[in-house]
Amino acid sequence: MKTLIVYAHPEPRSLNGSLKDLAVATLEKAGHEVRVSDLYAMRWKAVVDAGDFGPSASSPLKVAADSGRAFDTGTLTPDVLAEQEKLLWADMIIFQFPMWWYTMPAILKGWVDRVFTYHFAYGVGEHSDVKYGERFGEGTLAGRRALLSVTVGGPESHYAERGINGPIDDLLFPIQHGILYYPGIEVLPPFVLYGSDRVTDEDFPDIAKAWEQRLLTLESTEPIAFRRQNFGDYEIPSLHLKEGLEPPGRSGFRLHVRP
């Protein structure tokens, strides 16, 4: 298995750093190939601008169209091209990051904004009466798997169904479904470490054991059963879930997960 780890934390000695290092060691020991994109160490540029698209940039700037033209003509900047190549190389992508203000760090969102260009990660496939592009289960990155490894400051009860922060699956839905599943990546259930600000050295061996177990079962873990867009569950072109497909009482983001 070829694994790309996209790591976003500014402190190498952090809990996130330790989880990243353990992932590299565990996967390599098991015979897998591993590459790491350490975004802070790389001093990753987090904002999209005309400089990303070289001669393909228009004035006024049109980010989607210009990024697609730059991708098609090979004029994206070398840092973006390198990350796209890593994604095409990988069978598995692990995202290691802390949850800050209910989402990923800005540098990781900037990685997505710049790397997931038009025609690379979206804007592909036919649009017709029976199909609305290749996305949500299809697309250029289909055949790959991804896992979010997320550290969260608060206790697990705060992220439960009735917890004040909202269910963790809802908070991660925009990333898992909207960023990763959109271009066809299958998403495994996340590895979430709660109460991370209170983890001690004495706690880490148990955390490490649980993380190693997840890493060694990546290939056999069933992905989240998100509904595929063009395979009968949704009306086209409205993309509304057809009536009667949801279990009684199910609503919200959970509508888009098969029972």
Written overview of the protein:
- The chain is an alpha/beta fold and 259 residues long.
- It has a single domain (2-222), classed as Flavodoxin domain (Rossmann fold), CATH 3.40.50.360.
- 31% of the residues lie in helices and 12% in strands.
- It contains seven helices and six strands.
- Strands 1, 2, 3, 4, 5 and 6 form a six-stranded parallel sheet that branches.
The helix/strand order is EHEHHEHEHEEHH
- What do we call the CATH homologous superfamily? Flavodoxin domain
Distance between the termini: 29 Å
> How many domains is the backbone divided into?
1
Question: Which helices and strands appear, and what pairs or packs with what?
Answer:
Blueprint: E1 2-7, H1 15-29, E2 33-38, H2 63-73, H3 78-89, E3 92-98, H4 106-115, E4 145-151, H5 168-181, E5 186-187, E6 191-193, H6 204-216, H7 229-233
What are the key terms here?
alpha/beta; 12% strand; six-stranded parallel β-sheet; 259 residues; 7 helices; single chain; 6 strands; Rossmann fold
In short:
With 259 residues, this protein is α/β, with parallel strands linked by helices.
